[in-house]
Design a protein that fits this description.
Blueprint lengths: L1 H39 L3 E7 L4 H11 L5 E4 L1 H6 L1 H9 L3 E4 L12 H17 L6 E2 L8 H10 L2 E2 L4 E2 L8 H11 L5 E5 L10 H13 L15
Parallel strand pairs: 1-2, 1-7, 2-3, 4-5, 6-7
Helix pairs in contact: 2-8, 5-6, 7-8
Length: 230
């Protein structure tokens, strides 16, 4: 009986260590950083899962047309395949953050695999001349090993307060309507310029964003990168 009780306690401890503790730390970071961004009165467009040869290029074209700066949380292996887009992001004044290397889910893989994914993604960006100070881990989650990596490298954790689920949309006008409704001062907007294989057409995001910016009445000077606050 003592043996099984000991095993139970060890399992509980490991669960708390790998999931609960990192989650609590993440909630603290999320609350603190979102408070700063909300109080700034700015609007932060953020894009995950890219860069994508077509979608990211079209988004950059739109942002340039309206003189808007955004933040791209890029996947390392995709950044290496589209290095010219990374160079363009830097040249045009956008911020770049890390989103892993292969988009590994920290809670659905070996505990150390998420850390390795961050390390490989960081290395990929460094090879492209990018020192990423900002991190949005895949699915916005961390485990114990990835938490240790974040702390060691002093990444600034960036969450969001507006998720429009653009990857589920198939009609650009629907996304445009969501942006009209949800995007106001203090919002950190989660969008996606990349897609996993088999997901909906990624042009929905670029086209929906263009429709939104063409018709929006909000002062476009409110848009900023996260580097303006964090």
């Amino acid at each position: 009986m003592n043996y099984f009780f000991t095993v139970f306690l060890v399992l509980v401890f490991l669960f708390l260590l790998n999931f609960i503790l990192p989650h609590l730390v993440k909630l603290y970071w999320k609350k603190r950083n979102l408070k700063l961004m909300e109080s700034s009165g700015k609007i932060f467009l953020t894009f995950d899962d890219g860069p994508d040869e077509t979608c990211t290029a079209e988004i950059l074209n739109t942002l340039k047309e309206y003189n808007i700066k955004a933040t791209f949380f890029v996947v390392g292996e995709r950044a290496e395949r589209n290095s010219s887009l990374i160079e363009r992001m830097i040249k045009e004044g956008h911020a770049i953050g890390l989103h892993g290397n292969k988009h590994v889910h920290p809670w659905k893989s070996n505990p150390w695999k998420a850390m390795d994914d961050l390390r490989e993604g960081q290395k990929a960006l460094q090879n492209l001349g990018v020192r990423a100070n900002y991190l949005r881990p895949p699915y916005g989650k961390i485990n114990f090993f990835s938490l240790m990596y974040v702390l060691y490298n002093r990444f600034i954790f960036v969450h969001w307060n507006t998720d429009l689920h653009d990857y589920k949309e198939t009609v650009p006008e629907n996304l445009k309507n969501k942006l009209d409704k949800e995007v106001t001062a203090g919002k950190v907007v989660l969008l996606h310029d990349g897609r996993v294989q088999g997901a909906k057409p990624n042009k929905v995001t670029s086209e929906g964003l263009r429709l939104f910016l063409q018709n929006m009445k909000t002062d476009k000077s409110l848009f900023a990168t996260i580097a303006a606050v964090l």
